[in-house]
């Protein structure tokens, strides 16, 4: 008998639709384990850290919580956000409280066009469109540096400073990561996005590091594009894109644009990676807690399920990851779509259809 490879997963459903979509992803992982015939297993531990938990306990992550997370091979995250807690409190209290100490400096967000899904972009020949946004995830505009009321002169005169931090090492590692990723793709190209015409320090450093690193990858085509021009390019010439690398803020915005172009925010997957693997990486859909539809059972589980497939990739289970992606694509092609994609299937119906496809193609 072959030995079972067991991967331990810390699941954090969080707020709103987080619980529904994480349950969907875990159902798919369960199926992957079952179909492996004992070759792989996933050992899942759930952590109840949410905004409700915060309001009761005064913190999102209890003392020793990060040590508990660290024992796992991966973290599977739903969403955080609640009308009862300020957005920056919940974001820094839970999501960034994991990505920062675990040095998950590379955030990848694939933009994938699925058959059967209407997109504002879609033309008859657009089905092959797919590109990946690589986001610097540890510094930049979200470094948390700055302060308020710096004028010291009271109401009406407040001055706030929000500083971007860009280090040469931080730029270099994410740019290299983007090139390494581009090398594995059919279209070997990296687009570097900055705003170096208007921001002459950090963004110029990005451009310089990009030009230097590019020399080590002669087989990869490159371009440098300003973020405003890149926004237009996403819409007008997406066929030119393969890997797009950008700072924390720019990539955050561009990846939302990408997911909307692909059909819905509910489709978008992401991975927060610690490429050195000193800490567990975290996999999560790009969307938030979606309080407007929470509890109705109609959320789109595809972003979360596709994030689980990125987790399988990181575990080295690439064949299984590919099968999950194929199952998702078969289901959308068959017109089994959740409400945000114009269909009327529930979260559970879409998930079960993906499970059935997975069983069929395995
Ligand atoms: P948060 O504060 O947690 O970021 P939000 O409301 O600002 O929440 P999202 O949760 O990302 O942002 O939701 C934005 C919009 O997209 C909402 O109208 C929501 O219903 C919709 N949406 C997001 N995710 C999904 C999903 N998985 N399925 C269906 N609709 C979704
Ligand atoms: Mg939001």
Automatic annotation (TrEMBL):
Domain Isopropylmalate dehydrogenase-like as annotated: residue spans: 8-354
Gene3D superfamilies in alphabetical order: Isopropylmalate Dehydrogenase
Enzyme class of the recorded protein, top EC level: oxidoreductase
Keywords, comma-separated and alphabetical: Manganese, Metal-binding, NAD, Oxidoreductase
Superkingdom: Bacteria
Protein family: Belongs to the isocitrate and isopropylmalate dehydrogenases family.
Protein name in UniProt: D-malate dehydrogenase (decarboxylating)
Native organism: Brevibacterium picturae
């Amino acid at each position: 008998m072959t030995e079972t490879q067991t991967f331990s997963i810390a699941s954090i459903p969080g707020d709103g639709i987080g619980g529904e979509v994480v349950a969907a992803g875990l159902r798919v992982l369960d199926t992957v384990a079952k179909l492996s015939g004992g070759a792989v297993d996933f050992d899942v531990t759930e952590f109840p850290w949410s905004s409700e938990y915060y309001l009761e306990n005064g913190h999102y992550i209890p003392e020793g919580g990060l040590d508990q997370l660290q024992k796992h091979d991966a973290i599977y995250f739903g969403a955080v956000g609640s009308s009862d807690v300020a957005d920056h409190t919940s974001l820094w209290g839970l999501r960034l409280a994991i990505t920062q100490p675990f040095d998950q400096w590379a955030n990848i967000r694939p933009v994938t066009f699925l058959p059967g899904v209407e997109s504002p972009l879609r033309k008859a020949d657009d089905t092959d469109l797919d590109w990946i946004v690589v986001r610097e995830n540890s510094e930049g505009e979200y470094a948390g540096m700055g302060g308020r009321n710096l004028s010291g002169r009271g109401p009406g005169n407040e001055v706030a400073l929000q500083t971007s931090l860009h280090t040469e090492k931080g730029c270099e590692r994410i740019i290299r990561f983007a090139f390494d990723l581009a090398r594995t793709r059919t279209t070997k190209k990296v687009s570097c996005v900055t705003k170096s015409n208007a921001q002459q320090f950090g963004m110029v450093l990005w451009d310089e590091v990009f030009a230097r690193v590019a020399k080590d990858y002669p087989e990869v085509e490159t371009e440098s594009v300003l973020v405003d021009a890149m926004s237009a390019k996403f819409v007008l010439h997406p066929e030119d894109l393969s890997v797009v690398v950008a700072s924390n803020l720019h990539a955050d915005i561009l990846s939302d644009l990408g997911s909307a172009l692909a059909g819905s925010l509910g489709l978008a997957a992401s991975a927060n990676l610690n490429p050195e693997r000193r800490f567990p990486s975290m996999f999560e859909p790009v969307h938030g807690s979606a309080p407007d539809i929470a509890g109705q059972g109609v959320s789109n589980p595809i972003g979360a399920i596709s994030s689980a497939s990125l987790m399988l990739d990181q575990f080295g289970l690439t064949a299984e990851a590919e099968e999950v992606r194929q199952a998702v694509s078969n289901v959308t092609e068959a017109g089994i779509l959740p409400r945000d994609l114009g269909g009327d299937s529930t979260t559970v119906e879409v998930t079960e259809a993906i499970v059935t496809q997975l069983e069929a193609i395995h």
